[in-house]
Amino acid sequence: MSNYQKRSKTELAQRVAQDIFDGAYVNLGIGQPTLVANHLPAGREVVLHSENGILGMGPAPAAGHEDYDLTNAGKQPVTLLPGGSFFHHADSFAMMRGGHLDICVLGAFQVSSTGDLANWSTGEPGAIPAVGGAMDLAVGAKSTWVMMDLLTKTGECKVVRECSYPLTGLACVKRIYTDLCTLECTQGGLRLIDTVDGLTHAELERIVGLPIRQ
C-alpha cells in the first residue's frame, strides 16, 4: 500500500525556489510558477523578470494593496522591489531571446523524457491560438524548468516518452518539478533528483511508465 503525500502547491513553489541560485535572473511563467516569487529564501538575491516588461519584480502584494497598473504577464498584481523597473514589451523579449535569463520556470501539458516541451495547446476547441512568449522563454533561457502536477485530472502522466501535443521547444527542459518528484531530463532519459517521502523508486516508475535513473 502506498504511503506518501503529494506536495501542496505552496510546497512545490518552495521546492523550486530552493534551487534558484543567488544572483539569478529568472522568469516565472503564467500559472503555478508565479507562486515561486512568494517563497524565495530570505537573503538570496534573485531578480525576477516578467514577459510584459518588468525586471525586479517582488512577491504578490498584501490584500488591499494591489495596484492593477502593475501586473505580471498573467495579469496578476505584483510588487516592484527597490531598483526594479518596467519597460517596453520589445525590450523584454530582447532579454528573453538574447540569452540574458538564467532560468525560466514554466507550466506544461507534457514534457518528454529528453526535455521536449508542450505547454501551449492541447488541440481542444477554444484553446489558445498561438504559442506566444513561451517559445522564446523555453529556448532563450540558459536553463528551463517545468513546474506542474505529475498527473492530469484524469490520471494520465504528463511526463511522456514523446509529446503528443504541439511542441513549444525541443530538448529545452532541464528539470521537472512536480507534486510527487523532481526529475532531470537528459539525452539518455530521465534521472531522479528527489521524491516525496514514502514514494519508492519502483512506484514512481510505475506511475510515470518510463525508466528513471537514480
TrEMBL record:
Keywords: Transferase. Gene3D superfamilies: Glutaconate Coenzyme A-transferase. SMART domains: CoA_trans. Pfam families: CoA_trans. This is 3-oxoacid CoA-transferase subunit B. PANTHER family: KETOACID-COENZYME A TRANSFERASE (PTHR13707), SUCCINYL-COA:3-KETOACID COENZYME A TRANSFERASE SUBUNIT B-RELATED (PTHR13707:SF57). Belongs to the 3-oxoacid CoA-transferase subunit B family. InterPro entries: 3-oxoacid_CoA-transf_B, CoA_trans_fam_I, CoA_transf_AS, NagB/RpiA_transferase-like.
